[in-house]
Every structure is written in structure tokens, then in C-alpha cells.
Amino acid sequence: MTDQSPTAAHFEARLRRIGDERYHDKHPFHHLLHSGGCTMDQVQAWVINRYYYQSRIPMKDAAFLSRLDDPKMRRIWRSRIEDHDGTDTREGGIARWLRLAEGVGLDPDYVASGVGILPATRFAVDAYVRFVRDQPLLPAVASSLTELFAPKIHSERIAGLLEHYDFANPDTIAYFQHRLTEAPKDVAFGLQWVLDHAVTQADQDAAANALIFKTEVLWAQLDALWSAYVEPGRIPPGAWRPGEGQAAGAKA
After folding, report:
1. CA 143 – CA 141 distance, rounded (Å)
2. Could you tell me which residue ranges the Thiaminase-2/PQQC domain spans (predicted)?
């Protein structure tokens, strides 16, 4: 890692403050989930809607990859797609998420179909894909830096799910376990790239605003879940309703 000037160190601290203030580990839905307070209907709603985000991450990264002129950076970034899509010899995060879906009593094919996704989830995730596809490279990379804060929430989630929910076991929570090593690898490169390329105040502002945007994408998804499935329980037309998409033999 290259030496950081005081300006770069100050900028990194600014990025980390954004996570301290805005990352979605502070959302009440995650507090409810990790403490064991969610009903199974609420857990299933979370699994269904979060799948849409998971499924779009490799599409976002593929769109970004197509814009890169540097072969070295393409090689580095390509691993993000493989982490989610898998390879011929290695399972990816999407397959692990579908195992979680089956573990909570959902039909994985139903979850993968995208039927029943909340409108706000779809709009927020699609906005993120467009952002990374269309924005300059610096903010596009900076938007991925929520990974700085992901290991903490994954550790809390693993502990909380294992303590409070019968469906949780090493197989069903494998997605989160793998992200404990995948996310730090990705962010080590992404953070240094942003620090190296955000050389002006305008650059730093653009990168910081991109990270804020990404935290809002994550927060909006949880707001939608809370409104539809926690309180006051306004499920939009066409969105998943408890009892739909159950796995064969699962209790509705």
C-alpha cells in the first residue's frame, strides 16, 4: 500500500465517518433481525428482497468492467463477479443466498424469479446499477466502499441468526461467512484506488457523495421492508405476501 499524505488520511477518515453515521447496520430492521425479533414472515420478506440486490451486484460489476481500459484493473475487478456468480469449480454468493432462501422455507426458484420484489427495492437497486454504469470511474468505485463496514454487520448477523433462529446453521448462513473474507479483499483494492485518484477537493466530494448515495440505496431497501412487513404493514400491490413462494413441504 502506498504512503498516504495527510490529505489522503483526512479523506479516508471522512469516508469512514460516512459509514459510522449512515451505514444500514443502524437501521431498526437489522436490530430486529439480529436480536431474534423478526417473525418468519419478516425473515422471508428480507430474504426475497435482498436477493434482488445480490443478483444485481455481478451485473453492476460487469457493467463497470466493460468501461475499464486497464487490463490489470479488469483482472482484479473480475473476481467480484466470480465471488457472486461462482465459477465452474467454485460456488458463488448467489447460490449460497438461495440456500438461505430454502432454509427459511422458500422455494429458491420463486426467489430467483424476482416475483414479489417490493417496488422500492427494485427502484433502489436498479438506481445503483445505473449509477455504476453511467457515473465517472471515481464515484463508481467509491460507491462500493460500503464494503468497509460490511464485516461488522456480517459478524453481528452470523451471531444473531445462530442464536435466535432454528433455520440458521453453517450451511444456510454460508453467504455471510464467505463475505467476511471476500469483502475485505475487495475493499482493500477499492479504497486504495479511490485514495490514489481522489486528488482534488472536487474528486473527494464526488467520491464521498457516491458513498452516501450507496448507503441510501441500502437504507431505502430496509425502509421498504419495514413499511410493508413490520409496521404499519402496507404491502404494495404485486409484492410478496406471507404464504407465497413456499418450498415444497414448508409450512406456510
Report:
1. 5
2. 13-223
Overall number of domains in the chain: 1
The answer to whether residue 3 is domain-embedded is no
Say if 143 falls within a structural domain.
yes
SS3 68: coil
Show the cell assigned to 212.
Answer: 452516501
Q: Is residue 198 part of a domain?
A: yes
Q: Rounded mean pLDDT of 183-195?
A: 93
More reliable by pLDDT, 4 or 56: 56
Residue 248: which pLDDT band, with cuts at 50, 70 and 90? confident
CATH code of the domain covering residue 18: 1.20.910.10
Q: What is the dihedral of CA 95, 156, 153, 9, to 10 degrees?
A: -130
Name all contacts of 94-98 with Cβ < 8 Å and 24+ positions apart. 94/54, 94/55, 94/58, 96/174, 96/175, 96/178, 97/47, 97/50, 97/51, 97/54, 97/175, 98/51
Domain carrying residue 123: 12-230
CA 14 to chain centre: 21
pLDDT (tens digit per residue) in 106-115: 999 999 999 9
Locate 110 and state its grid cell. Answer: 420463486
pLDDT value, residue 5: 52
The predicted pLDDT at position 1 comes to 43
CA angle 208/213/217 to nearest 5° reads 150
42 Cα distance to chain centroid: 18
pLDDT tens for 6-43 read 589 999 999 999 999 999 999 999 999 999 999 999 99
Q: Give the number of other Cβ atoms within 10 Å of residue 187's Cβ.
A: 19
